[in-house]
Write a structure and sequence with these properties.
single chain, 385 residues, alpha+beta, Butyryl-Coa Dehydrogenase, subunit A, domain 1, Butyryl-CoA Dehydrogenase, subunit A, domain 2, Butyryl-CoA Dehydrogenase, subunit A, domain 3, 3 domains, four-stranded antiparallel sheet, three-stranded mixed sheet, 11 helices, globular
């Protein structure tokens, strides 16, 4: 399918190389299998992680410790191509690099960085990020998970986390907890006594992704398990901004995949003696879908350039996540209608993307939270409470 606006012409040669390399990886390693993964609700994290690490996609926007140190647009392009395959693989890469690795890279001690970041960049160790709780999603400041120092100087961690990507396959969890000194982050090896994780089943979205609940039962951690540079909600929220930026791009990939499937189907499916793409109503749907996808891509590219210039704000990322997740879901729904009954089968990617995008609309900040963030930026008035 031709890109009428030729948006990728604005990428550098290196960024186009990352695009093509990631797209080839997805074509060879994800697309032939992802329908089965989705149907069976499995994700081969251990098998894929080393290959993703070898390509330099894990923590690719971080510097040092075996990370590629690439620019924000390059990271965004990779997220776009990964999510064109499936939201699950982009989520894996985002959680590994933008949540778990970024938290250690930004807020960790020299020892924590040296211990975990090289292994995580290589895909030898998998990370997860424990912030959301069963009763505290959009309001993480009210979390109940808590950590207390005992006389020995160790931390005793108790509580639980919910909807944690990679949770039951992770080697290390970044866990945020209430302490006497406010909210702090902890680097938690998952083989520590008192840690347990249960995979969440019966999902109808992000089925090709590991989603888990985490539990901490009188879990003893050494005094140096705390992230020394993170205090309060600013730490975890800055990590979420990193991950949300990847979603801004990833949603474009899912939407593009649905549009491409719809164009291909409409130009080959014949009814009343001609391809359904020859009917005005179908062309109107396709045209509006392309307008939405192209505008979403322009938003992602603009935010990427702002990020590379060091000028991006959390409010701008909220705008991008809100707009692009909504556009991608609308695009998937229109594509499903063009494919008719075939649109609900896993022989085509549309219903899989459509179901996944229902989660994308919600996680890393719900649509309502991002609306209020944009509203506050416009009015100066806080409507969260």
């Amino acid at each position: 399918m031709d890109d009428l606006l030729r948006i990728d012409d604005g990428l550098t040669d290196d960024q186009r190389l990352i695009r093509d390399t990631t797209r080839s990886f997805v074509a060879d390693n994800v697309l032939p299998h992802v329908g089965d993964w989705f149907e069976q609700a499995v994700f081969p994290a251990r098998e894929l992680a080393p290959a993703l690490g070898e390509l330099g996609l894990l923590g690719m926007h971080l510097t040092g410790y075996g990370c590629a140190g690439l620019d924000a647009v390059s990271y965004g392009v990779a997220c776009r191509e990964l999510e064109a395959g499936d939201s699950g693989i982009r989520s894996f890469v985002s959680v590994q690099g933008s949540l778990a690795m970024f938290a250690i890279w930004k807020y960790g001690s020299a020892e924590q960085k040296a211990e975990w970041l090289p292994r995580m960049a290589a895909g030898e160790a998998i990370g997860c990020f424990g912030l959301t709780e069963p009763d505290h999603g959009s309001d993480p400041g009210s979390m109940r998970t808590h950590a207390k120092r005992d006389p020995s100087g160790d931390w005793i961690l108790n509580g639980s986390k919910m909807w944690i990507t990679n949770g039951s396959v992770a080697d290390v969890a970044i866990v945020w907890a209430q302490t006497d000194d406010g909210i702090r982050g902890f680097v938690v090896p998952t083989d520590t006594p008192g840690f347990s994780a249960d995979e969440i089943h019966k999902k109808m979205s992000l089925r090709a992704s590991v989603t888990s609940a985490l539990y901490f039962d009188d879990m003893r951690l050494p005094g140096d398990a705390v992230l020394p540079e993170a205090r309060g909600l600013k730490g975890p929220l800055s990590c979420l901004s990193e991950a949300r930026y990847g979603i801004v791009w990833g949603a474009v990939g899912a939407a593009r995949a649905c549009l491409e499937a719809a164009v291909d189907y409409a130009t080959t499916r014949r009814q009343f003696g001609k391809p359904i793409a020859a009917f005005q109503l179908t062309q109107e749907k396709l045209a509006w879908m392309y307008v939405g996808v192209a505008q979403a891509q322009l938003t992602a590219l603009h935010l990427g350039r702002l990020k590379d210039a060091g000028n991006i704000t959390p409010q701008q990322i909220s705008f991008g996540k809100l707009a692009n997740a909504r556009t991608a879901l609308d695009t998937a729904r229109q594509a499903r209608s063009i494919l008719g009954g075939n649109g609900i089968t896993l022989e085509y990617p549309v219903i899989r993307h459509m179901n996944n995008l229902e989660s994308i609309l919600t996680y890393e900040g719900t649509q309502e939270i991002h609306l209020l963030t944009v509203g506050k930026a416009l009015t100066g008035l806080d409507a969260f409470r």
